[in-house]
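yo

u said u wanted the structure for the complex thing, so here. seqs first:
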Amino acid sequence: MALYLYLQFPSLLVDCVSPLPAKVPLAVADAQHRMVQLNTEAAARGITLGMSLGTAAALCADLQLLPYQTERQQQLLQSVAQQLYQLMADIALDPPDGLYLRLCAMLRLYRGLNGYWQVLYKALQALGYRYQFSCGTTPLAAKCLARQQLNLLSADSTELSEALKRSPLVASELSLPAQQQLKRLGITTLGQLLALAPAELSRRFEPELLSYLGRLNGDFYHALNYIQPAPGFSRYIELLYDIADTSVLTAPLSGLLQQLSMQLKHRDAVCYQLQLSLHFRSQRQAIELTVGSAQGEYLPERWLMLCQLQLSRLKLTEPVSGLELSCSDFKPKQAQTSALFNETATTLSPLQLVSLLQARLGCDAVSSLSLQNQHLPELASRRQPAQGPKQSLSETALQPVTPLALRPAFILPSPRPLTEPVEITSGPERLCPNGWQLAAQRDYFIGRNRKGQWLWLYRTVSQQWFVHGLFS
Amino acid sequence: MSAIIAQLARRQLLWQGNNQQAAYQALSSGFAELDARLGGGFPVTGLIELQTEAGIGELRLMLPYLKQQQASGRLLVLIAPPAEPCADMLAAAGIDLSALLIIAPANNKDMLWAAEQCLDSGCCASVLLWQPQFNLAQARRLQLAAEQGAASLIVLRKPAQYLSLPVNLSLALTAKAQGLGAKVLKRKGGWAGEVVDISMQPHWPALCLADSSAATVLTAVAG
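structre next:
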């Protein structure tokens, strides 16, 4: 027997607003100025769904209003489905606020409806959205029952069909004219309607009614588009209060990271880079931060630390109104190996250390050094952003470069003219730039000045002397 | 008589000056004359302070030690070096460039933060820090981080009158014709005030004055 569960989230847009410090009535109004979503405080003040804006404002003066955003609603529903996908195989979206879950295939895994519900309940609690649900033998039956807020959880088909027969027509998805027409005939429940012969109905009513009833009954096949997991992670939260202090952003951010980490854990993956966007209320361009970890992390604490370091460098000119966290690709987790009998307990791996330093000091401030096969001193050493030891190791293994004999420890970025007497101890060593540019050739000497500093000097063709390095 | 001494020693009532424990684990500096004075070499962990002018051979003095430190596979970190480090010279001295990090912090605060993170992480063997400004509390903090991560921090500063810092070893280096003169300013578990002449002749013959008459004094001065 087929069994479906319908989950309805009646107030996604209200619930996704970050937790309120005090009890604030909050409602979402659509384009026709009708209340479509309410939080519990607003409902307690007597505001009902479908009420007009004027009435609502009269009832409750400090009502906070949000506009209804179709796209945002769709995104939220999608993200709920993605989260539940970790537990349930077959989920289909029913915009704007519902999800079909095909239960029958999952019951064996969770050992019956009870086990299934326990797992689902936990996941729904973690999401924090209000919901109503019902089981049904067909998707539409489950939806019809869920919309009456019956919260029926049963695999018993007779109980479910009894409940369906008792359902009023208002809970069905029949068009309003059709409902009116049926009402005039004295038909008020679905049971009465289903008792009628389909052939009779087809003569009097539109074909849509018959098709609906067929799918409700399970006589017609109802195709559902089950979702596929999206690659990566992307989530947006709207902050109710604008935040101007970057350290206060930690709380909403850690919530987002927790969700990311859950998804990563389920896939046994890590990610190397996060995109953090700070959105502003005005039309200003959102600030995009790229937070990277050279080793790849999944733990929310580690990511939070890296994000905080980046945020602490940031100066906000305007309060932030929304936060978006996205990660485009997940990579499989690789086990870290370390020595079994190492005496020193390392708290970080070299790659983690690099990420940590880069997060606070910037990518350019942390670099590694590699030796190039060049005779000119300014080309022989190459500084590149530190990627961790592994990569550079393979690079040097490919082309082993033998270091030149005697070079100073430090090369001055720009040679400075020699202004003091020095003792020359060795030289010259003639270096000519690539392409035999004889005019630019330099004769290098090693010299020692009065203070005892060992300098690397050169003489140009025009007999000018420069200091180019320090033998530290 | 010796029986009584042995008995007292066994009951740990007697303290003998010649078998005292070293205050730190030492690693050979690569210069025999220095090792003899420092009780085996430079400390493996903790702070080492070098008061020195730039360019007189202070890094060359540390290179054999740094090479040994790096042999454990851990990182060597250079924080705020005075100029571009030269890969040729470091590679020729046996430093593994793939386990080398160079950090260029924007200010003193970032510099100390980076040093502490590196020391504390446990994945760095040695950290070299050029010209930091720190007070006693910050030095103590770095010392603790270094002990925690089993790393050594080598601080290079210009010679001046500083407050005594909680370091394992403090040396004042001066340029000598044959190498360096080192004065022990402070040594944990040892005596200060010793002066050692370190010869660079075996390691770096080209960077020693053979004798003053052989060298030609350059008189042409530019600028």
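The radius of gyration of chain A is 34 Å. The mean pLDDT of chain A is 85.
cya
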